[in-house]
Write a structure and sequence with these properties.
Two copies of one chain form a homodimer. By secondary structure, chain A is mainly α. Chain A has helices spanning 3-11, 18-25, 37-49, 73-84, 95-101, 108-137, 142-149, 156-192; strands at residues 16-17, 53-60, 64-71. The longest helix of chain A is centred in the last third of the chain and has 37 residues, at 156-192. Chain A binds a DNA duplex through residues 1, 3, 17-19, 22, 35-39, 41-42, 45, 60-67, 90-91, 93.
Amino acid sequence: MSLRYALLALLRVGPLSGYDLQKQFSQSVGHVWHAPDSQIYPELRKMELDGLIEGEEQTRGLRGVRRVYHVTDAGNRSYLDWMESPLDYQRVRDPAHLRAAYLEAASPEAARRFLRGHIAQWEGELEQWQGELTHIEALSNPMLVRRLEVTPAADHARTIAFKRFTYEGLVERARGEIAWARQGLKLVDDLER
Amino acid sequence: MSLRYALLALLRVGPLSGYDLQKQFSQSVGHVWHAPDSQIYPELRKMELDGLIEGEEQTRGLRGVRRVYHVTDAGNRSYLDWMESPLDYQRVRDPAHLRAAYLEAASPEAARRFLRGHIAQWEGELEQWQGELTHIEALSNPMLVRRLEVTPAADHARTIAFKRFTYEGLVERARGEIAWARQGLKLVDDLER
DNA sequence: CTCATCATGTAAGGAGTTACATGATTGG
DNA sequence: CCAATCATGTAACTCCTTACATGATGAG
């Protein structure tokens, strides 16, 4: 159910097509909420049916068409309502820690492969999030710049501060996961002796 | 797809019924992989069809029946294969950080409610995981004791070490989330001035 | 003219959630 | 005899994944 709020968060800056949104998902919001195109297009249609957004068909060249969506008043209200409402947390379902808990059943080599994989996974995320953080600090994220353009100057600091806060949290999480897996590698070494 | 490996991890210690497994899910494995009964019973049936486990119908009292499942050779192999295979990581989909990133759209009170909720959420998890850790150190977790009983003495240290490692990681993660949300509360205070 | 990019989907299936549904047994 | 717990499910629905499918436009 969060997908539509991720989409609304982007659309509140200004009208975008499904394709544009999809591109943004591999950048800005996509860093906290991934969604493939096959999920975005149908969700936009549903949101339009629910009256949260409205699509306008634009011609592109001679026969090309694109639907550009903008947020309706109802959509804006729905977004703000979500923002004021309690978040529902998913129950824990963590494949990496599930495996870690029974790692005695794996060979030391497999255990090391798993832990190295975990490090690689989170180093990838870390790089993404640190990159985002750099773009936030330098005001070089195009979506953030567009957002600031439609935001009263008095709210610029807030807007930037919460983005920085978010990505700092993610960076810390990634570092935590990496440190944990390194500990695990040491443990596997110790146990082998 | 991890559910069946969580179930196999438990069943490898000894035969259990769907009901027993369901109970264990709210304790041992459930701390890293939640599953409701409505998901466990059908999954066990599917695993039996796939030949990973075998169920034996036992009578309970006069008319009561219960199916007690045990792992087959194929099930054991499947589990060990999974243990040696690379883990597939889910794409990031994080409602808390999604909201945090756009917290400028919320009122300061709502922002505080959200952050306090986040702290409460992770303090709950922290308590669970710290409790588990205590039970591991004290060897007072019944499932762990049963596991050690069917494990060669030479592997006891390994078995315990990986459990401790897992829950230490989870405890650290929870602490990280709590620290992050506390930072957020400070930020909301600072921005209000 | 061709290729990258723009642009929008459908279809099948797996995984998980919530709610509903039923009945047996055991201990007090 | 009554309540807690034992015991096992189904049904409908949402969300997400993977794979498939198609065609237009613009730059070189």
